[in-house]
Amino acid sequence: MAGRAGARGAASGIAFEIGGAGTARRATATASAAPASSIDALLAMQAVEDPMAGRRKLVRRGRSLLDALDALQADLLVGRISEGHLNQLMALIGQARDRQEPGLDALLDDIELRARVELAKRGIYPPL
User: Fold this and answer.
1) In this structure, are residues 63 and 96 in contact, taking their beta carbons and an 8 Å threshold?
2) DSSP 24
3) Which of 21, 68, 82, 127 has the smallest count of CB within 10 Å of its CB?
4) What is the DSSP letter of 28?
5) What is the pLDDT of residues 47-69, one digit of tens each?
6) How remote is the C-alpha of 92 from its chain's centroid?
7) Quick check: pTM over 0.70?
8) Cα torsion for 72, 76, 79, 83, to the nearest 10°?
9) Averaged over 9-17, what is the pLDDT?
10) Mind listing the pLDDT tens digit for each residue in 25-37?
11) Which ranges of the chain would DSSP assign to H, the alpha helix?
12) What percent of the chain has pLDDT over 90?
C-alpha cells in the first residue's frame, strides 16, 4: 500500500520510496507440497461422471434420433426416401444403444430393421 500512496504523492511533489530498501528480507519457507493422497483424491473426483451430464447426453441423442426419424417421415410423405437420411439414422441407432433399457432396445431394433430393409432395397448393405 505504501507504493500506491507514494505513486499518488508523486504528482503532488512527494518522491516515491520503496520501504526498507536498505534491508534484505529473509526468504520464508513455502508451504510443503501437498501429499500424493490429495492429488489422488482430486483425480478420483474428476473421474466421477456427473449424472446430469449423462442425462443431457442421452437427451441430445434422443433428440437427434427423433430429428432423423422426422426427416425420414417427411421423405416417406413425399414418396422418395433419401439414402443420406437412412445412413444418418443407422449411425444414430448405433450410438443410441445402451443395452440397459429392454423396451428402448427393442424399439431401436425395430427401427434399425426397417432402415436396413430400405437400404437393402437400394442395394446397400451396412455391416451388422
Assistant:
1) no
2) P
3) 127
4) P
5) 776 777 777 887 888 899 889 98
6) 18
7) no
8) 30
9) 58
10) 565 555 555 556 6
11) 2-11, 36-47, 51-78, 83-96, 102-121
12) 3
Q: Which three cell numbers stand for residue 27?
A: 526468504
CA–CA distance, 90 with 81 (Å, rounded to integer):
14
Least Cα distance to 118 among 89, 86, 91, 88 occurs for: 86
> How many CB atoms are located within 10 Å of the residue 68 CB?
21
Instruction: State the Cα–Cα distance between residues 128 and 119, nearest whole angstrom.
Output: 13
Which candidate, 84, 80, 69, places its Cα nearest to that of 114?
69
Instruction: Write the CA distances from 12 to 3, 4, 127, integer angstroms.
Output: 15, 13, 83
93 neighbors 115 (Cβ within 8 angstroms): yes
Indicate the burial class of 93 (C-beta count within 10 angstroms; 0-12, 13-18, 19 or more).
middle
d(CA 120, CA 71): 19
Residue pair 72/92 in contact (Cβ under 8 Å)? The answer is: no
Residue 91 in contact with residue 68, Cβ under 8 Å?
A: no
Residues, the chain: 128
Residue entry with cell 426419424: 69
